[in-house]
Amino acid sequence: MINLGRLSFENFKSFSDLYEVDFRKVDLFVLDGPNGFGKTTIFDAIEVCLTGRIGRVFSTDNKKKNTHFLKNILDKPTNIFLELVKDHETILVIHASIPKDTTVEQNKIRNHGIDINFLSKWPDDIRNISDLDYLVDFSLERILDNSNFKSTFDIFNYIQQEETFHFLKNKESERHDKISYLFGTSKEVNQKDHFIFIKGLLEKKKNNLTEELGVLYGEKKNLENQLGLNLNSNNVSDIHPSNKINKLVNNDNLISELNQHVENIGNLIWILNNKENFKILKFNFSINYIISNRKSELENVVKIGHLKDYNEFERIEKHIDWIEKLSNIIEIHESVLNVDNNVLELETINLFSKIHPILSEKYTIEIKNLKDLKGRVGTSQATINKIVTSRNSLKQHYEMHISSESSKISCPFCGDYKNTIVELWEEFDKQSQYFEELKDVNSIELSHLEKKLKESFFLECRSKSDYIVSKYKKYLDILPSLNEKLSLKDQWKSMEKLRTWFEEADIDIGNYICVKSSDLIGNSLTTKMNELVSFLRKLILPIGESKNYSDLYGVLKYYNLSENQGIIFDVDNNIIELADLEKDLLFLSYYDLKSKSEDLRRKTKEISDKESKLNAITSKFSELQSICSAYNISIKKYELSVAKQISIPFHVYSSKLLQTRPDGNGVFLQSAKNAQEVGFFRFVSNLTDDHDAWNTMSSGQLSGLILSFTLAMNKVYPSKFNTLLIDDPVQTMDEINLASFVQLLRNEFSDYQLVISTHERRTSSYFSYKYQHNNEVKILNLKQSRLNFL
Questions:
Q1: Which tens digit of pLDDT belongs to each residue from 195-250?
Q2: Of 20, 661, 676, 750, whose CB count within 10 A is highest?
Q3: Which chain positions lie within coiled-coil regions (predicted)?
Q4: What is the CATH number that goes with domain 1-146+720-790?
Q5: For residues 356 and 367, what is the distance between their CA atoms, to the nearest angstrom?
């Protein structure tokens, strides 16, 4: 169960400095001392934290105040901290504060001007609260599991000292209201009565407005009939729009737009009367619009207008993929053709074998022998072979560049000049013979084998690669044209829309578009576009009309209308006939006459004003009827439920507290039985008595009655907040009633934390004596505490 912990407040009411009270681990806390030393202030501080306001105060006027009624020092902030504990552990700290500077609006009694925030722990320094870590999205009702905690606080948890006195001064007519307040319904009853009063005023006003409007409707009808005669119409009720043009129906701006609507309807009538000319206007406009604003789409038609559908792009992508793969193959075979014929390295053998594996298998033995011989040939022999090979390669390349008619030839090997080419090559052959004689048996065999492979394997590989390159390289030339088409894939829809328009308009543009995907448009696009635009311009038809298609189309668009072959359709696809438009023109003419009639305008405004008032009043009247009915049902249902639930414990507790009654019985509780019956709550001495207890009991008995009621409510409807606050309950109780009260609290509410105030020392001593067994009791004398504090 949840109880009070620590309480700290500063600059609150009569307390200017910081004052702290510790309720922790205390079952009975008695505040005693003379009146005026702050007992009720402590109760007020607790109530402010728990409910956000002080329930007993009320505003006597609505005037702005220069001072705040809860602050002691005006230019100093007020801070109140209240700790809630469960099993001696802090579960919540409530911080109620009033800022240093308050507005005159916040100072009003009804506003209180109190800010409530929540903390998870008690502040380390209660005097330094500049940086508090408040909980977000938190409510006291949620932790107490009671959504009505604030509204029922003074019923379940708090009995104020004045509640035991002022009832004796009430008139009999106020008894039910005051008793209902104890049950928590007086506020709702007052609200319901207030609503009923307002409902009566509204009903009277509603009836008066209805009668006035009836007269005004007749006067307006006569004025309208007189205007209808000017349009050769005997019955103005027949003058209304065709309802096929929405902007003429329920349009508040119709008067200001009247001339524009008349002109627009005239244009629509022209369309229906000149369908062929409208088609020509539309066609010419479309051609000019395409030329001026659809250049990109026209270019795309030229490039990909030959494609049948979007799936053609998939075939183009596959074709491009095939060509790209083919390009890689051609590149590989070109590498074979680029190999030097005079150089036969193992890397070259491996490359040719990889590219032409079938041919490689044919010369498997020779290739194997070649690799073996290269492995057996020593470094010096390998060098000789490379020299011979390099010399032969150099000779071959040199012969390709040297002129046979040169007078003097420079030797590419030693740099000496020879008189003729013949002399040069004779010297070359001598040197070659010299190097051949330097070769050993393996080198000679290797040379013969290399020569054989060059003349067979190498030659066949090069021949096959040359065939592949010659046959397929031509396909690489169409790759740019295919990429040109594929790049327009994302623009297919806009292109197709334009191409479809050409087809529907029976315009053949086949001579100006690409014939097949392999054709590259490229730089010829400008020429083709000029030819296509020139062709389209020649299609524009001459027309003598002064009408502009853009204006006519704007009218159709303005009214959300569509047109096809000179036929106009409304938003629901209904055909708009010429008679419909003539009907709309008549309506506009009549509306124009009405708008210019000063008498009708005044009458219409008068009716409109009264209708607005009547609609508002009727709406509020219906709301009030529902509200009053809901109030009545809820109040009666709640009162009956409460009365039934608490009647028995209330009778038992009141019998214990009112032991001085001669018959020894408690008080009975009566209430209305159904929603139709006038509501009442009545405390009666016995079941046959229909006199209220206020008229039959003493003030001491009434004090006991109120205490009994609060205790009964707690017994029947227990809550998580097990603390009872009772401010001076014994001012009008005698010793016998007081003894019974203490005995009842000890036996029936032993698990409750009690905070009680009294101004009598003997009463606080009596409470302490009765509670000292197995209970923690603490007595705080406010007079001594305040004087010592000072």
A1: 888 988 988 998 998 888 888 888 777 766 666 656 666 566 667 788 888 888 77
A2: 661
A3: 593-620
A4: 3.40.50.300
A5: 13
